[in-house]
Every structure is written in structure tokens, then in C-alpha cells.
Calcium/calmodulin-dependent protein kinase type I
Amino acid sequence: MTLQQCQYKTGEVLGSGTYSSVKLAIHNETGVKYAVKVINKKMMEGREDLIRNEIEVLKRASTGHSNIVRLIDYFETMNNLYLVMDLCTGGELFDKICQRGHFFEKDAKDIVGVISDSVRYLHSVGIVHRDLKPENLLFRDNNSSASDLCVADFGLSKIIESGKFTQLYHICGTVGYMAPEVFKKTGHGFPVDIWAIGVITFFLLSGTTPFDRNSKQKDEINAIIDGNYNFEPAECWNAVSDTAKDFIRGCMNADPDQRFTAQQVIDHPWLKGLGDKDEDLL
Ligand code: ADP
Ligand code: MG
């Protein structure tokens, strides 16, 4: 055990992914609780650059915005790499959507506003996240208020050199949230995060995802490439305002050059609170 590792006691598993598990960590001296992401170096063999990359991105991202999970410390042993981060005890946005079925517009708008502002900040410092989805959006505490939502998991993120906006070619992400240009291999960049904001908004408002095709992944990918989605079934969308649908269309434009930018997302009337059906009714 290294000196640094001795500073923390690890506890229950908070979550896990393919190459990592995330555990509770308690700092011995201060008693402060954190989350530690333990990445197995053996399983990442040949792709060590990915884990170094996650540290580099977190270092760049994590102090500038209150809704981005902070990297507190990192260290490694022979077998593992440890990333000590802020602890988010409120769970994943994914579970909240599943519990509630869907979100009302007012609540969805607050959540999407926080995600969008975080993405605007990430893009402004040259970071594309590439894995935005409700499983990677965590609440700091059990109040689950939008202002306590945190963007996490920078495992697939990239720092984009200035001016080279479509320099990434590697296909990665989570299929249902991946933009058409990622599959087309025409090069991708910042706009993939905006597409994911659109998919997340779609999911929040309806409780359904836009491209599920009877669990056939090939059909799902073809639908994404064609930008083939609609606001159905009607019972999920009847109560949703046209402004919200316009917001989703702007984010989920199959052409990345026509898609909203992060600034256009922030400035959209839906996020600015104009034209909301709930408000129209008052
Ligand atoms: P992976 O790259 O394996 O998906 P993540 O960074 O997304 O790893 O972490 C996996 C899961 O662990 C998350 O979906 C979440 O449930 C949990 N988790 C991650 N970071 C934290 C954190 N800072 N606080 C609490 N739970 C976390
Ligand atoms: Mg994850």
C-alpha cells in the first residue's frame, strides 16, 4: 500500500463500469467522505492513455464549474489507478427518471439547464465529454435539486486542439446517446455533446428513448444515422410544449453543422422559460 492510499479507508461500492469500480473513501485524518474510482490497469492494458487522459481532463475541467465533479487526488499502485473525487450521494439521474417515469417540463428544464451550462463551460475550455447520459449525471445529495446535479465520468472525454473541431474518429460512447457523425466516421467534436443533451431531454420529458428499435442494435444505429425519431407515442408527448420539442429538434439535428451550439442551447426560449405550457396555463 502506498502512503497516499493509506490516507483513505475504502467502503461500500457505489457503482461500477467495465474497467472500474467506484467506492466510498473516507479520509483518515479529516473523516471527510469521497468517492474513489478504482481503475484496473491490467484490464486497460494497451489503452493506458485513456486513464491518463481521464486525469488530464478532470484536472482541466473540475475546478471551473460547480456542476462538474471535482478531482481531489489521484495515485496508483502496481495494479490500480485511484481517482479520488467529490462524493455524490444522491444517485444517478437515470434512476430518478426510472422512478418517476418522466419529468414535468418545469423540472426537466431546470435539469437540462444545468447540464447545458456545464457543457457550455466544458466546450469553452476545449473539452468534449462524449459520454453524456443519465447514468453519468449524479446528484450531490438526496435533495435531488437541479443545482446539485454533477457531470461525471470523463473516461471518454477529449481535449480538442483549438480550431480542429472535427478531429475525433474513434467510435465510442453509449449507442443510444451517440450522434450520427460518430457512426458515419466523418469526424466528430463538440456537437456530439449537444446531440446527447437532446436525447437526455427527450428521455426526461417522455420516459422513453428516441431510437430503441426492439433491442436490435443495427436498426437502432441506422435510425440514429438517419436522424429518424419522432415524438411518439402521443400520450407521452401531448402535454409537452412545442418550445420543448423545438429545443430537442435543434439539439438532435442529424447534421452537426446545423445543430445548436452550446450557446444556442443556453439561449433557447425553452431554457429561458418562455413559452412553457405549464406557465401558459397559469
Ligand atoms: P465508468 O467509466 O466505469 O462508467 P463512472 O465514472 O461512470 O465509471 O462511474 C460508475 C458509476 O459509479 C456511476 O454511474 C455512478 O453510479 C458511480 N459514481 C461515479 N462517480 C461517483 C461519485 N463521484 N460519487 C458517487 N457515485 C459515483
Ligand atoms: Mg459511466
